[in-house]
Design brief:
two-stranded antiparallel sheet; about 65% helix; mainly alpha; about 210 residues; 2 strands
Length: about 210
C-alpha cells in the first residue's frame, strides 16, 4: 500500500563562497512522493527512479542505502508470510473450538434431543437452534473484529503518524469491514453445521 505525501525542502547552496548569500524564489521547493512497501522483487523501481533523476543536469548524485532497503524488503515479506500462517492456525483453532463447543452443547441437551426425536423431529429441525446461534455469534465476532481494527488503525494514525486512514483507501476499508462479519458468519455456520450433523448421527446420542 502506497500513500502520497508532500514535503517542503528549503533551497540551499553547496560550496558557496564566503560572504555570498543565496536568494531564490521560491525559497522552498515542494516535493511530492509516495511512501509504503514495495511489491516483492520490485526494487528496480528505485533503480529506474535514480536513472531518471540522473538525467537532470541540476542533479549531481542520487544515492540510497541499497542493503538496508533490500533487508527491509525481505523482512516485510517474511513478516507477511508469518502473519498468513498465523491466521491459518487461528482459523483452525477457531474451527476446533466451535466443534468442541457444539459437542458440549449437544451432550448437555441429550434428553431434549431424545424427546424431540421421539415425537418425530428430524435432524435438520434439531440443528436449527444451533445454526441460528452460530449466525448470531458470527455477526457479533465480526463486528467486534471491525471495532478492534478501527481502533488499531486510529492508533497508528494518531500515535505513530502513519496515514492508514487515507480517503483513497476508504472503499477497500469498507469492503473489509463488511466482509469480516460475512466471513465470520460463513466460518461459524458451516463449522456448526458439520459438527451438529456429525454428533447427531453419532451412535452415542440416543
Amino acid at each position: 500500500m502506497l500513500t502520497d505525501g508532500t514535503l517542503e525542502v528549503p533551497v540551499t547552496g553547496i560550496n558557496m563562497p564566503d560572504g555570498m548569500l543565496l536568494r531564490t524564489f521560491p525559497a522552498k521547493v515542494k516535493v511530492n512522493f509516495k511512501t509504503g512497501i514495495l511489491p516483492e522483487h520490485e526494487t528496480e523501481l528505485i533503480d529506474r527512479f535514480i536513472k531518471k533523476m540522473g538525467q537532470y543536469t541540476c542533479v549531481t548524485r542520487v544515492d540510497y542505502q541499497e542493503n538496508v532497503v533490500s533487508d527491509l524488503d525481505d523482512l516485510f515479506f517474511k513478516m507477511a508470510w508469518f502473519l498468513l500462517i498465523f491466521i491459518v492456525l487461528l482459523l483452525l483453532i477457531c474451527v476446533v473450538l466451535i466443534n468442541n463447543t457444539i459437542k458440549i452443547a449437544i451432550y448437555s441437551t441429550q434428553q431434549t434431543i431424545q424427546t424431540m426425536r421421539l415425537v418425530g423431529a428430524k435432524n435438520s429441525f434439531i440443528a436449527a437452534p444451533f445454526l441460528r446461534r452460530s449466525v448470531i455469534f458470527g455477526i457479533l465476532g465480526g463486528l467486534i473484529a471491525d471495532v478492534l481494527m478501527a481502533g488499531v488503525a486510529y492508533s497508528f494514525s494518531t500515535q505513530f503518524g502513519i496515514d492508514v486512514l487515507d480517503q483513497k483507501h476508504w472503499i477497500a476499508y469498507g469492503v473489509m469491514l463488511i466482509g469480516i462479519p460475512i466471513v465470520g458468519v460463513i466460518i461459524s455456520y458451516f463449522s456448526t453445521l458439520v459438527s451438529v450433523h456429525h454428533f447427531l448421527k453419532a451412535k452415542n446420542i440416543r
